[in-house]
Amino acid sequence: MSHSDSEVNRTKGEFKKKLHVELKAKNLMKSQSYAALKNKMKTLRDARLLFAAASNNTENIEKQLALGASPNSADTHGRSALHIAASKGYKDVVKLLLERGADPNQNDKLCNTPLHLAACTHNLSIISLLLNAGADVRKLDLYGKNPVQLAESKLHILRRSWRDGSIEMVQVLTELQLIVDILISVYKQQTPGTNVDNLQMMKLSLNSEAPETVDDQMSKLLMELQGVKIS
Q1: What whole-number distance in Å separates Cα of residue 33 and Cα of residue 115?
Q2: CA neighbours closer than 13 Å in the CB half-sphere of residue 78
Q3: CA dihedral 200, 165, 211, 151 (to 10 degrees)
Q4: Residues near 119 by Cβ (< 8 Å), separated by ≥ 6?
Q5: Which spans of this chain does the record mark as coiled coil (predicted)?
Q6: Of 214, 129, 202, 205, residue with least CA distance to 171
Q7: pLDDT at 120 (0 to 100)
């Protein structure tokens, strides 16, 4: 092989090598661009899910989840769609998110779970939903309060409102039944096997309570709540 042939072959080899490197770089850029685009689209879907939760829009939530949004997507404060819905009292949204796999024990940056926020806003129906979905009553918020302690304050408010006549009996009884449901859920989670028949009977009896006995039932429930040991 002549010197010129060797030079040509070397040039061809270098050209092929350079072409291979350039092709590899282009493929990498395409891959990175695709990954970046995919990540951007996911971020957008997650943001739309959070907005839908804040707007009480179950239809849009279904749509964003179907497109790939995470049911546990969170904002810069760590608040998930479930946190938002629980804090705003959007029961249907909470129920939907839980059915789609949202984590009831996810913490935001203040250590609040959706259960804490539902307790803070005294939304008993959402508290019950979260507990039935496995929300951990042992979790504490930034101030060292567990959800049961926060829910207890709701009962104090109910009793005060009942005594000063600012709340209707029908609403009181509905709220008390929800508190009983919460207690039953807590007992089942904390001490499986606990006999809750007395609570079930109390719940049933609330449907036929006379006005003069409502205060006594609230006192009994308050004692039950205060006697719950979270471990």
Answers
A1: 40
A2: 10
A3: 10
A4: 127, 147, 148, 150, 151, 154
A5: none
A6: 214
A7: 80
134-144 confidence digits (pLDDT tens) = 998 888 777 77
Q: Judge contact between 118 and 90, C-beta under 8 A.
A: no
**pTM score, whole prediction:** 0.69
What residue ranges do the domains of the chain occupy?
13-226
The structural architecture, per CATH, of the domain 13-226 is Alpha Horseshoe (1.25)
DSSP code for 206: G
pLDDT for 27-69, tens place per residue? Answer: 656 665 645 656 677 788 899 999 999 999 999 999 999 988 9
Asked if residue 191 lies in contact with residue 183, where contact means CB atoms within 8 angstroms, the answer is no
CA–CA distance, 145 with 173 (Å, rounded to integer): 26
Sequence-ordered list of residues with C-beta below 8 angstroms from that of 229, at least 6 positions apart, any chain: 190
Taking residues 184-195, what's their average pLDDT? 81
Tokens of 199: 């609570």
